[in-house]
Amino acid sequence: MSATKALYREDAYCQTATAKVLEVTEDGHLILDQSIFYPMGGGQPGDKGVLACAGKADVQVMDTRNNREVYGQILHVVSQPCDLQAGDEVTMQLDWAIRYRRMRVHTALHLLSVVLPFPVTGGAIGECLTDEKIDGRLDFDIADPDFDKAALSAQLQAMVDKHAEVSDQWITDAELDANPDLVKTMSVQPPRGSGVIRLVNVDGLDLQPCGGTHLANIGEIGQVRIKKIENKGKINRRVRIVLEA
After folding, report:
1. CATH 1.10.645.10 correct for 5-94
2. Quick one: pLDDT at residue 130?
3. 0.70 cut: is pTM over it?
């Protein structure tokens, strides 16, 4: 079966679109011919939303994941068994409020990797907190850090205030192999299999492989600060950021 066309990659701001149901799996997950829902990966949670089909009850998408059995295929995890069948035309509606906050945090994490230019050992974007804020973190390979949270927060905010544009470009696997310094993460490598790899370019500030969703301009991040710096091992430091609004 063919891969799912990733509309979220073409336009991270797309909030609604139509699609066709290709299959309902034995587990009840839905496979569509195209999707605006980002599948969990790279530390970013899967998207949520609603699928609407004429004459049938709306279906809540509770999570979105990559199909491990078919490269490039996306599984839409629904809240309960539904009446949708292969061939049905559906209208996808993204939970935009959650996605947009994740995009802001994700883009801010790219900037954090510039403020702290150390090898990245891990990272994640949090779920919604009770105050509707989302946090994010990166883990760094740092032996003996001596950081001032306020000073680092000021550096991060100053970078956000540059309002730099964010764009994509593509390189081949061979080009990435020839430029290994583009990869900042030690434990997670960019996904391969299609022959090309997506680079996210924050104009004048950062360039690295990434498959997640990002803002068009870093000014949309707004106010951000470093919330906590944690010791997670002999040379592992976890730095958490949070959006102020």
Report:
1. no
2. 47
3. yes
